[in-house]
């Protein structure tokens, strides 16, 4: 089924022009039904199972090219950094993606697409979508469940402890990437023979998976989990410092961009 914007391939091509690879983005299409089949009833999307969905992520290249150029253009020469920062109460990264998402909605029309941002919550505080599950289904990155869950070996003692989160690793970037949102084109149907890509399972032993999950859950801020899977491209030192700094203290990290 096609919309006025064309079929799935046309829509993906249009979206790639707004989020091109060379600016540090990746787009991965999936069937809503494929996501719903593994997401669980609390997180399923209320659309036909063959509806087109596309998940967006940014790669290491994005931060010091696309994002840097965008934020430098936003600042007026007479503004102090302190005054400039007040324009971004939710942070400049959120503002960047909100702006791009609005451009996508204008491009396709609000009657054709909805955007689910990575941080959006339902009234009950549950996420609107499970980004890591969606990314796994779409073949963007492999999601590793904690070994005790994947193998079904959790006992009553371990289940009484805090449940550990799984971790997603990109086939090229390891943990050096971020999901940013999902586009659902609710008037577009994928063909019955459509198959999502499948991300490779880089961590092929329980021991490697346990190490990645442990680092993600206990050392998230230092980013050591990102190294799992032998990434070929990584965040720069500046990027690592920015993301490991509390959001309200990040402006000094990039202050030299405006000198």
From TrEMBL:
Record keywords, A-Z: Cytoplasm, FAD, Flavoprotein, FMN, NADP, Oxidoreductase
Location in the cell: Cytoplasm
An example molecular function term from Gene Ontology annotations: demethylase activity
UniProt keyword Transmembrane present: no
Co-factor(s): FAD; FMN
An example Gene Ontology CC term for this record: cytoplasm
Major location category of this protein: cytoplasm
Name of this protein: Cyanocobalamin reductase (cyanide-eliminating)
GO BP annotations, alphabetical order: cobalamin metabolic process
Family listed: Belongs to the MMACHC family.
NADP in keyword set: yes
Regions crossing the membrane: none
Species: Parascaris univalens
